[in-house]
Amino acid sequence: MAKALSSTLHTVSRLSRPSIPRTTRLTRFQTRPFSITPRRRLMETSGFTEEQLTVRDAIFKICANFSDDYWMERDQTETYPHELHAALAKDGWIGIALQEELGGAGLGISEATMMLQTIAESGAGLAGAQSIHANVYATQPVSKFATKDQRDRFLRKIISGEWRTCFGVTEPNTGLETLKLKTLATRDPSGDGYRISGQKIWISSAQVATKMVLLARTTPLEEVKKPSEGLSMFYIDFDRSQPGLEAKKIRKMGGRAVDANQVFFDNYHVPKDALIGEEGQGFKIILHGMNAERALLAGEALGLGYAALKKSTAYAKERVVFGRPIGQNQAIQHPLASAYMHLEAAKLATYHAARLYDRSNPSRPDYDPSITQHAVGVACNSAKYLAAEAAFTACERSVMSMGGMGYAAEYHVERYMRECFVPRLAPVSREMIMNFIGEKSLGLPRSY
Ligand SMILES: Cc1cc2nc3c(=O)[nH]c(=O)nc-3n(C[C@H](O)[C@H](O)[C@H](O)COP(=O)(O)OP(=O)(O)OC[C@H]3O[C@@H](n4cnc5c(N)ncnc54)[C@H](O)[C@@H]3O)c2cc1C
């Protein structure tokens, strides 16, 4: 990692390691007032670590170069926000949660969640966060399970911003029943790699990605004992100019700056070393990225919710009807106040989940072996659910409290409203999270 903000990131990464001797720079951070977040932000920042607050501060500074009008225009013209990705890559932020020896910052999902929340909260919304997030979460299983040689070849260019990644799991005919997915990777008869055939759907950023994390069957469903077996994870070149690969954009409700696609594989060739980890172990491997994704998406939902409340409270202070600001009426003030409290509660769940995820990683100095993967799964799913619902409440109440202007594009909350459905239904729907909690935490019979 080089360039302008690399020193901030190196400082942050040092701060994340309690075992590393404290440096002069660390002392400088310790003497700062506890909260470095400007007062204009709504979220209460007490209790966050100095690393998280430093990330928040630096990301807000970068995002300040991208105005609300920039995001409105990207949404309306369905144009990818390449400039944000370039600005974050330039300063080393894409590798926030990847190893330092690869050029990353070596931080955790706790700091990455703060980064994505901040991007969304800056006004970039879910579109801004989604233009970055697969590069952060989908690379987690690659960084953990790939060989050193694969990591070097695959991840350095993601961190530098030269390459971008997409995540290919969902299929049109299987939906949330991931274990039934049908895309097949068969050994090429020549002995050189695999041939991929099948279909994926809703793949974000497939129009701009150079790599894809792909979950495919290497043993057909009918031939395995358990559906979780026979799946393999690949990190493939996503080269749309090659035969056998096509990506078609899906028209959608919100987040229009970032494309979502149907992807068709027809005998598409990938080399042998695109396989990450062992053949047949792909489901276990990819789960590592899925829990991270839930924590990040929870952060993105929070950012969107706080962004909406910031707009609506500012409007409620200024808009005068019947001789007083509308925000002086409790019918306007109370729904916004309760939406704020829901966001604050979801914030606690989100950063608790991110902390459990990080501290369950044996390679970290703060590893806690008592944290089970079950606990991480419960926390990450719960956080995603709670943050998505809190964001929805904040966006809906913001639109309603602004009257007609809540519906006008130039006031931006209508864009946030359209975007806030995504964390409710992806990467796993709220119904499936309740099924999971009902079964795994409450011990009720499996309902699906
Ligand atoms: C904007 C966007 C971006 C996305 N990006 C990606 C991406 O980059 N990569 C990727 O792989 N996927 C991506 N997805 C896909 C997303 O993860 C899926 O849409 C999501 O997992 C839901 O799957 P589905 O749409 O097939 O719903 P379905 O599985 O068809 O389910 C439909 C509805 O039925 C409900 N339901 C089904 N079964 C049950 C049950 N037993 N009990 C209760 N309710 C049930 C579900 O909760 C849901 O509400 C994206 C989706 C969107 C909208």
From TrEMBL:
All copies of domain Acyl-CoA oxidase/dehydrogenase middle, residue ranges: 166-267
Domain Acyl-CoA dehydrogenase/oxidase N-terminal, chain residue ranges per copy: 49-162
Cofactor annotation: FAD
Keyword Phosphoprotein: no
Ranges of residues in domain Acyl-CoA dehydrogenase/oxidase C-terminal: 280-439
InterPro entries with a match to the protein in the record: Acyl-CoA_Oxase/DH_mid-dom, Acyl-CoA_Oxase/DH_mid-dom_sf, AcylCo_DH-like_C, AcylCo_DH/oxidase_C, AcylCoA_DH/ox_N, AcylCoA_DH/ox_N_sf, AcylCoA_DH/oxidase_NM_dom_sf
GO MF annotations, alphabetized: acyl-CoA dehydrogenase activity; flavin adenine dinucleotide binding
Alphabetic keyword roster: FAD, Flavoprotein, Oxidoreductase
Name of one Pfam family that matches: Acyl-CoA_dh_1
Family membership: Belongs to the acyl-CoA dehydrogenase family.
Protein name: Acyl-CoA dehydrogenase
